[in-house]
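Incident review: delayed structure delivery

Summary: a single-chain prediction request sat in the queue longer than the usual turnaround. Root cause was a stuck worker, restarted by the on-call engineer. No data loss occurred. The affected request and its eventual output are reproduced below so the record is complete for anyone auditing the incident later.

Affected input:
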Amino acid sequence: MAETLFERRSAAEEHYQRGLELKRKGFFLEAEQEFRQSMETDPAFFDPLLELLIEQEEEGIAEDLRTSQLLRRADQKYKLGIALLKHNRPEKAVRHLNEACALESDNAKYLCALAQALAASGRKEEAMEKLRIAAGVRGGSNPQENSARAHYLLGKMHLKEGHVNRARRRLLMAYALNPEAEEVIVLLKKVGVGPLRRWLMSSCLKRQNRAQGRRYTPVARMKDNPMEIPAEGED
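Output delivered after worker restart:
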């Protein structure tokens, strides 16, 4: 069994190449097995999944080879969605990211990725709704960091539409949850919020939320200034 990362990647590549050869010869079931083995050997090497997806959707391979049979786990669906998004296939990415979110509806990372795919597909309102949900959920890995990213993406979209006040509020929320995110600080400077004002306005938001009876989660490097998500409708 391959032990090192190099060995795993080499083994995955071998299965991948055999799968391509079998597919060219028309042995699709055998090709599926090679692609599956490549995925299991090195889950990070998901080119075979993308390859099979494109083959199926563009050439109409039989239903028993649908990609959903290969992508049983939400994380695999997420990875394929990201790969499709990077390959400028946002509409197809939406389908797989939707499936990932259906399996883990409280995963902020998956919801943010789905929102980006929706936005790239021209479905801006749907994207913003997914980001609002992502900003408030607490599931998946690094939930606070991904919740901060949801606020950041919302702020970025508001700013693009000229809604500076809404953008500023979302960006401050992102900063409160993840003060080390450089991209958030850059946009806050763009909307006229420097270091001191950043801290003061975050403190103000904290007090408002406390008055509304919300709960707080301490964040790194801001333990004396925790923040909680604002109520929906405050965008």
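Verification: The two ends are 52 Å apart (CA to CA).
Action items: add queue-age alerting; document worker restart procedure.
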